[in-house]
Specification:
Elements lengths: L1 E4 L6 H15 L7 E5 L16 H5 L4 H11 L5 H13 L3 E3 L13 E5 L7 H8 L7 E6 L15 H9 L6 E4 L13
Parallel strand pairs: 1-5, 1-6, 2-3, 2-4, 4-5
C-alpha cells in the first residue's frame, strides 16, 4: 500500500500513473498485468442526475482527470494527432482499466497496479473494503487531499484517506508520502 497525500496540483495522480505505466509496460520483470483506476463518485458541485448507459459510459466523466494526465505523459513529442490513439490503445488493450468502486465487493484483485484517486472522498468503510480486495501481487496507491473533500458527510478527520493513513502508520506494508504546497506542478492558482 502506498498513500500519497498533498494539495491540489502536486501531481499525485500524474506520478501514480507514470510509475504504474513504467511497472506495467517497461519494467524488466513486469510485476503487474495492468493498471486499474477507481475514483469515488463524489460531486464537486450539484449532482448531474442519472447517467444512462453502460458502466464505462457512466464512469467516463469521473475518468477525465486520468485522461488529462495520460495526455501529458504520452505526448512527449508534441504529436497531438497520435495522442488519442495512444490513450485509446491503453484502454482497448486492457493496460489501463477504469471501474466503478460500487462493484469491488467480493473481488480478489491480483497482479494489478490499483490507483484509488480522490480517496479523501471515501468513507473509512469504503477504504477498508478496497484494501481488503487486494490479492497477491497487487499494489494499492491511495491518492488524495484531505483539504478538498466533496462528500457532504466527511471531514478532514473522518474520511477514508485519513483513516487509512492513521491505521497503516508504521506498517511495513505501507509507504506514505506527503506532497508539499511548494511542489505544486499545476500553477500558482492551484495554491
Amino acid at each position: 500500500l502506498a498513500i500519497i497525500q498533498g494539495p491540489a496540483g502536486t501531481a499525485k495522480t500524474f506520478y501514480a500513473l507514470a510509475a504504474g505505466l513504467e511497472q506495467v509496460l517497461e519494467a524488466e520483470a513486469r510485476p503487474y498485468r495492468k493498471i486499474l483506476v477507481c475514483r469515488p463518485n463524489a460531486q464537486f458541485d450539484a449532482d448531474i442526475g442519472f447517467l444512462p448507459g453502460s458502466e464505462q459510459e457512466k464512469i467516463s466523466p469521473l475518468m477525465r482527470p486520468i485522461v488529462d494526465n495520460l495526455e501529458i505523459l504520452l505526448d512527449l513529442e508534441g504529436k497531438k494527432k497520435e495522442l488519442r490513439g495512444r490513450i485509446d490503445y491503453l484502454f482497448d488493450t486492457g493496460v489501463i482499466t477504469a471501474e466503478a468502486m460500487n462493484f469491488m465487493r467480493g473481488r480478489s484483485i491480483t497482479d494489478t497496479w490499483l490507483v484509488i484517486d480522490e480517496a479523501q472522498n471515501l468513507t473509512p468503510r469504503q477504504v477498508k473494503g478496497i484494501v481488503t480486495r487486494v490479492g497477491k501481487g497487487t499494489k494499492v496507491v491511495l491518492l488524495g487531499d484531505p483539504a478538498q473533500i466533496d462528500h457532504p458527510l466527511l471531514d478532514t478527520r473522518s474520511n477514508g484517506l485519513t483513516y487509512a493513513s492513521a491505521r497503516m502508520r508504521g506498517s511495513p506494508l505501507c509507504a506514505q508520502l506527503t506532497m508539499l504546497p511548494d511542489e505544486c506542478e499545476r500553477s500558482s492558482l492551484a495554491l
